[in-house]
Design brief:
This protein has 10 helices and 2 strands, in the order αααααβααααβα. By secondary structure, it is mainly alpha-helical. The chain folds into 2 domains: 151 residues; 137 residues. The N terminus and C terminus are likely disordered.
Amino acid sequence: MTSWLASTRLAARLGALLRPLALASLVANVALIVTGAAVRLTNSGLGCPTWPRCTDDSYVTTREMGVHGVIEFGNRMLTWVLVGLAVACFLGALNHRRRSLTRLSVLVALGIPGQGVVGGITVLTNLNPWVVGLHFILSVALIAGCWAFWRRIDEGDGEPVSLVPAPLRTLARLTALVSFAVIAAGVVVTGSGPHSGDQGAKRNGLDPATVSQVHADLVFLLIGLSVALWLALKAVQAPPAAVKAALVLIGIELAQGLVGFVQYFTHLPVVLVAVHMLGSGLVWVATLAVLWSLRERPALSPTDLPARKEAVAAA
């Protein structure tokens, strides 16, 4: 009985803190991109040469493995921070008794260990560039899940209501698709470049100049679509939050593009590459912010509440 009461009180406290916990989970998943970049850029990708152990005889790094082992092991430990936040968000969502929140929290919670397994496969395949790329793409998917969970806390459970005409929603979706394509192309560029995570790691064999040009072309397309979306939103007098979100996206894209060009023509200094990696996460978050600004979810109407209560009771 005492343990049940304690768990109930814990869930209630987590429920009260759900929004900051969700935001912390989002920030931590973006930070994972940066720590992953640090592993790769310091040639620490095989600092722990096996998985799930760090060595054949130890789950933690050893003195003999030096700084590379510390960096790689530290990145692995961040996964446990993400797990802790995901569990806290799940318990808090249960306290809110909203199935939509619970489902999203479960999705994020399951994605984190899945991401960890793919990270382990990257080590076991000696940093195969395609597996490393998949590892990054999964981070992008997790960021989307964390964003959706965070924003859903302040939304109702009614059907989404569009705040702009249908053609603008289509343009926004196309912009989001190209934004993802830019990130995916950046992953391919990374797999062809010099920062492999370990001096002995293989590259994907593609010509860096060619794939970089494809990546740059997609960036120009993304900026053009974003500017068009911003102008269209202003033209139809969309909600100020939507116009502002589109303008913020353009600003982040321009800054990210500038960093990308400078790093390319200065032969990829590690500091700029790390900033560019962070920028990719920020571009994706800004893209999601635009999509969310174009609609709202009202609370369920009184006529919908009995059906929802019956569904909850049946569950």
